Amino acid sequence: MKYKINLIPKKETPLLEKMVYFALNYLRYIIVITQLVVIGVFFYRFQIDQRIIDLKEAVDQKKEIVQIVLPLLNEASRIDTKTTEIESILRRQSGFQSMVTYFLSIFPATIQLNNLEILEKSMKVSGTAADPAHLQAFFQLMKEDEKFGDVTFQTIKKGDNGYDFVLNLSKWKN
């Protein structure tokens, strides 16, 4: 049996030597890892910058498209406004035409029409009737048909040619 005995006491390594040993052995790995992370972040930054540039270019393209299309949109808006106005006018004309057509279709031939004042949904009719029965029958027909909400005589006077009258027709129901 052989024993090896070391009578020299083991030296205590000072803290500075421990730090130098650590720095020389392990710190280089930490530095390499840190450099790899920095390089990765650096390349990631290039990628993000390229995305930002692409997005700015896309925004610029869209701005140009909007600038080109804006006059067309304004023109379309004006045309839409005109179309809406035309439709409104045509509806009013259609209502006006149906009101006049209805009135002329039931107006008796025995009554003379002197004046016809037409508003949007009302009429003011003045004329002369030789026979009051025809005038009364026309008035009753207008009341019964209920095409006008309000049918009233404004005036009725006996004249030289017959009965002069003014008839107010309002609240046309289409």
Compose a concise summary of this entry.
By secondary structure, this protein is of the alpha+beta class. It has helices spanning 15-106, 132-145; strands spanning 111-118, 123-129, 148-158, 163-172.
Structure description:
It is built from two helices and four strands, in the order αββαββ. It is an alpha+beta fold. It has two domains: 93 residues; 65 residues, Gyrase A, domain 2. A four-stranded antiparallel sheet has the order 1-2-4-3, covered by helices on one side. A hairpin with a 4-residue loop joins strand 1 and strand 2. It is rod-shaped and about 165 Å long.
Give the secondary structure arrangement, pairings included.
Layout: H1 15-106, E1 111-118, E2 123-129, H2 132-145, E3 148-158, E4 163-172
Antiparallel strand pairs: 1-2, 2-4, 3-4
- Backbone shape: rod-shaped
Q: Extract low-pLDDT stretches.
A: none
Query: Order of SSEs, N→C?
Result: HEEHEE
Helix content: 55-70%
Number of strands: 4
Q: Over all CA atoms, what is the radius of gyration?
A: 51 Å
What is the helix tally? 2
Mean pLDDT: 89
Distance between the termini: 130 Å
Strand order of the main beta sheet, please? Answer: 1-2-4-3
Q: By helix and strand content, what is the structural category?
A: alpha+beta
Query: How many structural units, i.e. domains?
Result: 2
Strand content: 15-25%
Main beta sheet: strand number and arrangement? 4 strands, antiparallel
